[in-house]
Amino acid sequence: MTGTALLALMSMGTVGGAHVLSKARWTWRAPRTAIALWQALGLGWGVATIGTLLSIALLPYDEGIAGGLPALFADQARRLDATHVTALLAAVSLTAVLLAMLMYAVFRVVRARRRHRALLALVSRSDSAAPGTLVLDHPEAAAYCVPGVRSSKVVVSAGTLELLDPAELAAVLAHERAHARERHDLVLLPFASLRQVFPQIRLVGRCLDAVELLIEMAADDRAKHHRAPRELATALLRFAAARPPAAPSGTLGAAATGEIPVMARVNRLLEPEAPRRSTRVVAMMAVPLIAGLPILLYALPH
């Protein structure tokens, strides 16, 4: 089988894998492993899809992508007919769009965080009830972190201080600090930019929703190292009942919206299930294979 066919199969396979993974529930037992698998699928799809288009464009050179690209520049694309030129333009366009939207997503997030930090400097205060945290005098419940390269800020509202008891509040703060420490915002960026590129494709939206829930579960697991699971579970239920507003742009909130995500998190906190070792091993073995194989296929003759 040629490299072109293998790349096409890899591209379709990653789409099928994303569809299956978006509905899987074993991922809830091992969210960090599942996040790594999602990242591998996203990278594998992009590399394989662009590679498929490039390999079709470079078929007249019969040297694969690695050998075909130098040959393309050497003869200034004289061997390409309309079909191959179209494939080449599609590959270049897809690469440019994906990179441009990722850079735009980063720009928007950085700008939103800069503005929000400036606002917090004006209206927030410290409170002994939440040490090391910025407090906003707002009656609605809110808790979120503002990630940063040098420092991250954890923010709660006065309504949260009234809603939660000290133990529950400490659990929520531990959850937010886990988001900041593990830089979950960087995990979300590529998937958010992908949804901007393909807003009409439902699978892309389901992928983003699945990753958002997994990073919340990963932060829950980290918070359990410092606080009792029941404290965080009751805090989530209180947040859900209070119907908090969405977290500001560029931040990560404590409570995922929607009844199903909240109850899924509460149930796994109160009734945890240990992940199967075999499942985790297979998933971790699949991560470098899915992410790395398309790159290796670039060197095969097509």
Mind summarizing the main beta sheet? 4 strands, mixed
Mean pLDDT: 89
Overall helicity: 55-70%
Spatial separation of the terminal alpha carbons: 9 Å
- Report the sheet-strand fraction: under 5%
The helix count comes to 11
Overall geometry comes to elongated
Q: Which value, in Å, is the CA radius of gyration?
A: 23 Å
Low-confidence stretches: none
* Class from helix and strand fractions: mainly alpha
Q: Strand order across the biggest sheet?
A: 1-3-2-4
Q: How many strand segments?
A: 4
Multimerization state: single chain
Order of helices and strands: HHHHEEEHHHHHEHH
Describe this structure in words.
This protein has about 300 residues and is mostly helical. It contains eleven helices and four strands, in the order ααααβββαααααβαα. Strands 1-3-2-4 form a four-stranded mixed beta sheet, sandwiched between helices. Strand 2 and strand 3 form a beta hairpin. The longest helix has about 40 residues. The N and C termini lie close together (about 10 Å).
